[in-house]
Amino acid sequence: MDFKIKLFNEFTTHELYQILQLRSEVFVVEQDCVYQDLDFKDQKALHLFGVKNDKIIAYTRIFKPGDYFDNASIGRVVVAADERKYGFGHDVMKASIKAVKTHFKVDKITISAQVYLKQFYEYHGFQQVGEGYLEDGIPHIRMNKL
């Protein structure tokens, strides 16, 4: 898998379509969560995506400090269902953390994590901050990497 990083206005139509399809496939259909994925935050984000055999199979969107949380943040972390067995979730997180350091020159990152993925994010150095909450009907926790 090869990673690419782009701003919103740098996407080709084909890339944007694949990313929106992947996000919808996982966050709306697979997780049975009816919510508006298109939230007008993509225009501010840095987009990191993984390509395998000319298909986008992994993605995150990354925000500079102050654009989403006080710290830099990583969100919409997604890997295509049929590609998860290869550890690409870890690869996309490592690449995203590196992108935060490279592009924003900071180490502090805040995420809003689905509770069931707490150990996954702890593996990448994140720690829970505060109590859990519901986001779009799904249990979440805030986590920081300092």
UniProtKB/TrEMBL annotation:
GO terms for molecular function: acyltransferase activity, transferring groups other than amino-acyl groups. Keywords: Transferase. It comes from the Bacteria. SUPFAM superfamilies: Acyl-CoA N-acyltransferases (Nat). Signal peptide: none annotated. InterPro entries: Acyl_CoA_acyltransferase, GNAT_dom. CDD domains: NAT_SF. Coiled coil: none annotated. The keyword Chloroplast does not apply. This is GNAT family N-acetyltransferase. Residues 6-146 form the N-acetyltransferase domain.
